[in-house]
Amino acid sequence: xxxxxxxxxxxxxxxxxxxxxxxxxxxxxxxxxxxxxxxxxxxxxxxxxxxxxxxxxxxxxxxxxxxxxxxxxxxxxxxxxxxxxxxxxxxxxxxxxxxxxxxxxxxxxxxxxxxxxxxxxxxxxxxxxxxxxxxxxxxxxxxxxxxxxxxxxxxxxxxxxxxxxxxxxxxxxxxxxxxxxxxxxxxxxxxxxxxxxxxxxxxxxxxxxxxxxxxxxxxxxxxxxxxxxxxxxxxxxxxxxxxxxxxxxxxxxxxxxxxxxxxxxx
Length: 266
Known about the structure:
This protein is an alpha/beta fold. The protein folds into two domains: about 1-155, no CATH class; about 155-265, no CATH class. The protein is about 45% helix and about 15% strand. The chain is built from eleven helices and eight strands. The N and C termini lie far apart (about 50 Å).
């Protein structure tokens, strides 16, 4: 069984155990491109494998009686303790069998209500407030995994967000991974031309569009700039390498086209 299918069981386990909370959550991170590929575009090849699972918390009032912290405890999830000698806060760990496990992290925008955080998630679980995260929540789409309705960011918003935030990553490999996921979406699926046009419109009209333009101009000056190089280094370890020979050039053209009508900021 391919590793992606093995780890997919972790995602199904997490979604199933948290099914009552799914209307308040948005699956983000590297699992979103995989779901686009498998469930929206019906592609044969998965994008770069990811393991850890990230859920965004929507700014919706939660009136349930149980928190996610309580649920994962009932389901006997593991706990990744972030402070030595302290049981809380912890990162939940979903497991399948003896060997497969993944951290499940929860993320939200800086202005998410603390009341929503505490009533939905619970104070015991690590919660990360991330700048610009609200962009991923501005437009979402449902995808059905088995019988579970999971919300993910719209692919256009996912690409825009990656191009907005990749430069905040301190680690060069993580910068490359973010750029790779944006490129994968611009390259894949029957609607890729429409997606590119919609991203272009976001770059033009969104309040953070100027920041995306600055990032692209800085990292995509030519096909041998750091942006295309980072993408190519990762793409060569994925199925992209089986059907595309000149990834640097293609990545440069697709991403630079998003700002082709804009003058470079001085």
